[in-house]
Specification:
This protein has about 150 residues and is mainly beta. About 5% of the residues lie in helices and about 60% in strands. It is built from 1 helix and 15 strands. The protein has a 4-stranded mixed β-sheet. Strands 5-6-7-8 form a 4-stranded antiparallel β-sheet, with no helix packed on it. A 4-stranded antiparallel β-sheet has the order 9-10-11-12, with no helix packed on it. Strand 13 and strand 14 form a beta hairpin.
Amino acid sequence: MKVEFKAISESDFRETGSILLFNTERPRCYGIIFNEEISFKFGWQSDLITPEINEVSENVYSLGIDLNFAIIDFNKNSIVTNLLLDYFFYLTKLYEDYLYVITELSIIRIELVTFTIIETLYLPDIFKEIVFDKNRIEVKCFNDEIAYFAI
């Protein structure tokens, strides 16, 4: 079943009966993620960016924006994980059996079967690029900093 995202107005956000995913203090933007059966609404602050939405597994999606990250299971119509991040969300990457939630200054490794947070990796500077190798992760940061982490 296809999942879609749509930006909505503040009044639509208040009036819709969708499940609240997250709503930041003083949101300026509002959205809804939905399929034919269920919808989740959320608000965020930055009007310069849009949420990153990715399919993690069949009918399970991740959504990240600003300081918020969530995993939604549309098979069970539930929020699996809902995190308030310490640093701004950048992107997600799937590698082997893990989902990597990349923020400005950290990487959160989430196991894909149970969606349990395995560990948080802290970066020496602002994230630029990630490269996965068989035994390690190489993270390039600003100021030519490179961090290596075992997989």
